[in-house]
Amino acid sequence: MGFRKDFLWGGATAANQIEGAYNEGGRALANVDLCPIGINRFAVISGRKKVLEFEEGEFYPAKNSIDHYHRYKEDIALFAEMGFKVYRFSIAWTRIYPNGDDEIPNEEGLKFYENLINECLKYNIEPLVTITHFDFPINLAKKYGGWRNRKIIEFYERLVKTLFIRFNGKVKYWLTFNEINVILVAPFMGAGLYFEEGENIEKIQYQAIHHELVASAKATKILREIDSDAKIGCMLAAGSYYPLTPKPEDVFAAIEENRKSYFFVDVQSRGYYPRYKLKELERKNILPEITEEDKKLLFENTVDFISFSYYSSKVAKYKNDIELKNSNLFSTVKNPYLKYTDWDWAIDPLGFRITLNEIYDRYQKPLFVVENGLGAIDVPDENGYVDDDYRIDYLRQHIKNMKDAVELDGVDLLGYTTWGPIDLVSAGTGEMKKRYGFIYVDRDNYGNGTLKRSKKKSFNWYKNVILSNGEYL
Ligand code: P53
């Protein structure tokens, strides 16, 4: 009953949103460093505004983030105190291969992650490593135009080989690309792509997607050769689309919206392009170059498990003739039955169970929830304590539904990591004010603050959830 005995409870972060130290330890610039907070952010992350170096008058929150690079020991000790069984973090590509195409890896970068991994293992925390969480070396963006270029597959191979060899036996769970489908909505942040006037954006996106899918399969092949005990998964920004009404046109619109994302996992988990996507790409005349070798590679190297993020469900409607809400990057119509967060994301705990079921039914492989949580405004007292009952409430309801999916529906679930167990920089908006943590960090949107860490009310609550393996909620 309930969650498996070895269920992996923990939290998840991403290098650029937590580490800072953007120019230390031999690290070079990446796309994620160049995404400013404020009105230009969306133009930059979507590749409409080309930015290849820091610009005057902009603030770049990822430069320093919450300085985890220098404080990881303190942070991991706090995770250990909560009883984490797993810690999901990502590798900054430019710490390992600063230019992406270097011949030799940067030892200082490898050493940093080795120390981080050892620190986790010291507390029996399983590291779950995202190889790339939106990270892309700016040198490769300049020289090759991002993932649109097939050459990038080789550089990615070089990166994963280095990591798999160095951390062989220490890391048992790997993810190839964070939220691989984010390339559809934020192609610069997600894949180092930016566009020139008159280019066919969709065509470039699908060519880049194909290269990522091939690179992901290559990573899977390489990992199996190096460490056959380790497991590798894909990672999707999930959250099912519902039809706005039972009108068949709305129902079909929901199918089409869902397919935009499931397409990625269809390839990564089943090993071939689904027919609906081939038809669409042919119809639009944007079919990427897919070689026989690519097909073989994709088919022979499917993922061991499927991981995903879930924040909210979405709603699709035939023809976008009513106002679209774009707060979550993925477009959605407002759901009149749900409440919304301060950032206008629908709160839908049952939608979590629905999504878990939908994905499990579709792929029949073990699942791993690697992001879930509430981004909210916290008001700390003078000691940095936050009474965050709203966060506890959100997580309680989501974990309850996750439990139903496991206990009542039989979904095979490996673990659950909440997003941002310690406050960090938002990917969507660049804000610090949008907080997810059990641990408060004294820093504001523009980098003011002492960076002091303090426990919120939810800290002890989550500790008890883990201690009771999800019985105490
Ligand atoms: P934030 C939206 C926009 C960007 C990234 O998001 C996203 C999403 C959610 O679908 O995905 C993940 O910080 C991502 C994390 C991110 C988290 O959602 O905009 O993997 O990097 O921080 C939460 O509130």
TrEMBL record:
EC number: 3.2.1.86
Signal peptide start and end residues: none
Matches recorded under Gene3D superfamilies: Glycosidases
Catalytic residues of the enzyme: E371
InterPro entries, alphabetized: GH, GH_1_N_CS, Glyco_hydro_1, Glyco_hydro_1_AS
Keywords: Glycosidase, Hydrolase
One Gene Ontology molecular-function label: 6-phospho-beta-glucosidase activity
Any one Gene Ontology cellular component term annotated for this protein: cytosol
GO biological process, one term: carbohydrate catabolic process
Organism domain of life: Bacteria
Enzyme superclass (EC): hydrolase
Pfam families xref list: Glyco_hydro_1 (PF00232)
Family: Belongs to the glycosyl hydrolase 1 family.
Name of the protein this chain belongs to: 6-phospho-beta-glucosidase
Underlying gene: ascB
